[in-house]
Amino acid sequence: MSEDQNESCAELRKVSHVTLYSPESGIAPPAAQADSDEHLVTLWLHGRPNETQRAYRREVDRAVKYLNKPLRSVTLSDVQGFADSLAEADLKPASIHRALSAVKSLFAFGFRIGYFPFDVAGPLQVPGFRDQLAERILSEAEVLRINSLEPNPRNRAILLTLYAGGFRVSEICSLKWRHLHERTDGGQITVFGKGDKTRSVLIPPSVWQALQILQNDAHPDAPVFRSRKRGHLDESQVWRIVVKAAERAGINKDVSCHWFRHAHASHALDRGCPIHLVQQTLGHSSVATTGKYLHARPSDSSGNYLPF
Fold first, then answer.
1. Given the residues 261, 262, 264, 267, the one annotated as active site
2. 263 vs 28, 90, 257, 280, 282, CA distance in Å?
3. What's the pLDDT tens digit per position in 63-77?
4. What was the pLDDT predicted at 245?
5. Boundaries of every domain in the chain
6. How far apart are CA 24 and CA 284, in angstroms?
7. How far apart are CA 165 and CA 288, in angstroms?
8. One of 168, 232, 262, 264 is an active-site residue; which one?
């Protein structure tokens, strides 16, 4: 759809709204869907995964602090000023993209439910950014070195599970022993992941054995990865375990928990695993998401067919 068509549709919506809900029509205006800025944000975040809610909330809080006025009073100029402030703060392009995308999404949502008379952030241009996925994929040798040098049995089991299952850190932190089931060859872990989706992932024997060392006589509802207080490990604690393990292995990169998920996808595809199986294992909603790993580390290139 062209810009002219978009503008025409927007004008049509405004005209229709005025005509339909004018006092002369005798039709009552629609009930307000949100009665405050905070209520609007709550409605906007509703139903999203907890991790997504936390990330979006941080971005919106940053914008609200900068704007320093009721959202209904915000203008396009205000939003553009916020965008400029992010650029001046020397944030990474990906961080700027995420922040502005969240703000645009909020204002678009508010417009759709009638909280705003129009979408002031709609015309805002969100800058693109260089995809750095290829830089965040550990080699097989690096993963093996990280795992082999970890002396703590619990921490080693965490590292192995992150890689073997391609799990998100939130998924392994919430694991209980009743989510693990033995199979003829290894085991199976069932997680409740992003988008409220449940998936079961097969675990190879070597990783399954590392997990069984931790179980002992634990209750089925006990956490698989326990903290010192015998509760579930916090995500931040797992992040520290990963960072320390990478440092111990001499890997001078900003390794995070999610890098093991990237490595799982990339290494599986490199070894010939069907892309739909990787998609199913990682819980991607679209095979296009999984396909990004093929582009990040291609196995072939048309340049190889040129007459050099």
1. 261
2. 57, 29, 10, 16, 12
3. 999 999 999 999 999
4. 95
5. 31-112, 134-298
6. 51
7. 20
8. 168
pLDDT at 289: 80
pLDDT > 70 in the chain, percent: 83
Contact of 154 with 173, CB cutoff 8 Å = no
Give ∠ CA 127-262-137 in degrees, rounded to 5.
Answer: 80
pLDDT confidence tier of residue 29, bands split at 50, 70 and 90: low
Q: Choosing from 194, 232, 262, 264, which is the catalytic residue? A: 194
The token duo for 244 is 């320390």
In CATH, the architecture of 134-298 is: Orthogonal Bundle (1.10)
Please, are residues 289 and 279 in contact by the beta-carbon 8 Å criterion? Answer: yes
Dihedral sign of CA atoms 292, 293, 298, 299 in order: negative
Nearest alpha-carbon partner for 81 in 41, 121, 118 = 121
User: Quick one: residue 114, left, alpha or beta (phi over 0 = left, psi -120 to 50 = alpha)?
Assistant: left
Cα(98)–Cα(173) distance, integer angstroms: 25
Residue 273: pLDDT over 70: yes
Query: Beta-strand (E) ranges in the chain?
Result: 180-182, 187-193, 197-203
Signed CA dihedral, 141, 142, 146, 147: sign only: negative
261 labelled catalytic: yes
Query: Which segment, 48-62, 146-160, 221-235, 275-289, is predicted with the most confidence on average?
Result: 146-160
Residues, the chain, total?
A: 308
Residue 306: which pLDDT band, with cuts at 50, 70 and 90? low
Q: Note the CATH architecture for domain 31-112.
A: Orthogonal Bundle (1.10)
Is 292 designated active site?
Answer: no
Structure-block tokens of residue 170: 């939130």
Assess contact for 127 and 96: CB atoms under 8 A: yes
Q: Would residue 293 show up in a list of annotated catalytic residues for this protein?
A: yes
- What's the whole-number average pLDDT of the chain? 84
* Inter-residue contact 137 to 263 (CB < 8 Å): yes
Sign of torsion, CA 87 89 92 95? negative
The yes-or-no answer on residue 163 being catalytic is no
